[in-house]
């Protein structure tokens, strides 16, 4: 029978004690709480205290984020639309090489066009939102909705005042719905 003094361990080692063997623990003689070494925090960690106070991205990060997200999502959506157009335009006598070429050309053209438009919208929105935060010295939902209104109006300003007003209203409504949806998700979805 094994000496009971060699079984120094916590409750998780009890199962191995009963079977007559124990696992090697390299940390047992170090007198440190080795169980908590790998318990990583779930809250964000900051290098400087000032970073923990700011709860939003800087204007440069915002600009890069919204422009990149806009361009990427537009390129993917445009590529899918181009693929659909190319498949519809296929003729029965086309070779595989011709069909692939048509798909690549159509997807690339539609992806670039829609990606550039959404990238510009993201650029305008990020600039306006960051400007409103700087002017109003507060970060709330009104900045986001006003930036959506301004982005839509400025994007369609060359098409005339009526188009600009309609686009501004659509932009404001879309951003308002996104802000409301974000609040609902924060409140009712446990993350």
How would you describe the overall organization of this protein?
One of its GO terms (cellular component) is TIM23 mitochondrial import inner membrane translocase complex. It is a multi-pass membrane protein. One of its GO terms (molecular function) is protein transmembrane transporter activity. Pfam families: Tim17 (PF02466). There is one protein chain. The chain is an all-alpha fold and 191 residues long. It is 65% helix and 0% strand. The two termini are 51 Å apart. 21% of the residues are buried.
Kindly summarize this structure in a few lines:
It is a multi-pass membrane protein. By secondary structure, this protein is mainly alpha-helical.
Which stretches are poorly predicted, pLDDT < 50 over at least 5 residues? 3-9
Largest sheet: none
- What is the ordering of alpha helices and beta strands? HHHHHH
Distance between the termini: 51 Å
Structure summary, number of beta strands: 0
Q: How many helices in DSSP terms?
A: 6
Mean pLDDT: 84
Q: Estimate percent helicity.
A: 55-70%
Overall outline:
flat
SSE blueprint:
Layout: H1 14-18, H2 49-53, H3 59-89, H4 96-136, H5 141-155, H6 161-188
Helix pairs in contact: 3-4, 4-5, 5-6
What tags apply to this protein structure?
191 residues, mainly alpha, disordered N terminus
